[in-house]
Specification:
single chain; alpha/beta; Rossmann fold; 38% helix
């Protein structure tokens, strides 16, 4: 069992279902067997449309794309993938904590879906995974969108790790929401508190079975091998690192990259300013 108690598992799955109700499009659930475990995928959009893979940030699962799915599923067949080894509905057997395994895992998913080449969108830890996939199987990627990728270009602030340590020590729902979840939102912006229940119940009740992905800075010489057209979006109020420094490093590292800094947004920019993010992604993919 991936949870400490049956009650904790029920709380998490109910929160996951509640967030999925925020999707105002039709969808189907796919369970894809891989060497690394059963991968849970939420698919939306017409099957005839070009594909896009979406990789969520740590602790949230694919339901977090509720503010983006309607716009994106009009132009793409969207496969929102629950990353193996994170807190979601995938069932891990092996870790994808190194770049080669990230690439092999994604290649198996694409093979199962019959996809030769795809676009990929990744947020936070999902952005870090996306970059590593691109260094391993970039021949299978058309375009890549990075939304505030965790580490990757610059180290994470020490405050991030401090806050993470505190919420694992003070295991209180209200404290986790205020001290950690709300930290990722720029002042003046709001996200429904219930959205974070999925993350909170995961932190409180999930029992890790494999080593999770821990984002770190990717060597510049490795990033320079990526020839995939890339769009990088960041919020000017980003808290996990200095966003301006990260943008500078990205431009010096990835040959074909476009960057954009969104005002009055932080780490949750794809929800905080969903229309701007959606429009930017759609314009780039076209």
């Amino acid at each position: 069992m991936a949870y400490k108690t049956p009650g904790g598992e029920q709380l998490f799955h109910q929160a996951y279902s509640n967030n999925l109700k925020r999707w105002n499009v039709s969808y189907e659930i796919l369970n894809i067997p891989t060497t690394y475990g059963n991968t849970h995928v939420i698919a939306s959009g017409e099957k005839e449309l070009p594909p896009v893979i979406m990789l969520h940030g740590a602790g949230m699962g694919s339901t977090i794309w509720y503010a983006n799915i309607e716009a994106l599923s009009k132009i793409r067949r969207v496969y929102a993938v629950d990353a193996i080894g994170d807190i979601n509905k995938s069932e891990p057997l092996r870790s994808i904590s190194n770049p080669e395994d990230m690439g092999k895992w994604m290649a198996e998913i694409l093979d199962h879906l019959g996809i030769e080449k795809t676009d990929i969108i990744g947020h936070s830890a999902g952005g870090y995974i996306t970059l590593n996939i691109a260094t391993y199987i970039q021949s299978r990627i058309n375009k890549m969108v990075l939304l505030a990728p965790a580490a990757s270009f610059v180290p994470l602030h020490k405050q991030f790790f401090l806050r993470l340590a505190f919420i694992n020590a003070i295991r209180n729902k209200g404290f986790i929401r205020r001290f950690f979840c709300h930290w990722f939102i720029a002042k003046g912006n709001t996200i429904d508190n219930e959205v974070f229940d999925q993350f909170i119940y995961g932190i409180l009740h999930y029992k890790w079975k494999v080593k999770p992905v821990i984002p770190k800075v990717i060597p510049k010489e490795k990033l320079q091998t990526i020839q995939v057209p890339t769009l990088l979006l960041m919020g000017e109020k980003e808290v996990i690192y200095n966003p301006r420094r990260a943008l500078m490093q990205s431009k010096a590292s990835i040959p074909h990259i476009e960057t954009m800094m969104l005002s009055n947004t932080s780490h949750c920019l794809f929800i905080e300013d969903a229309k701007n993010v959606n429009d930017s992604i759609i314009n780039f993919l076209f």
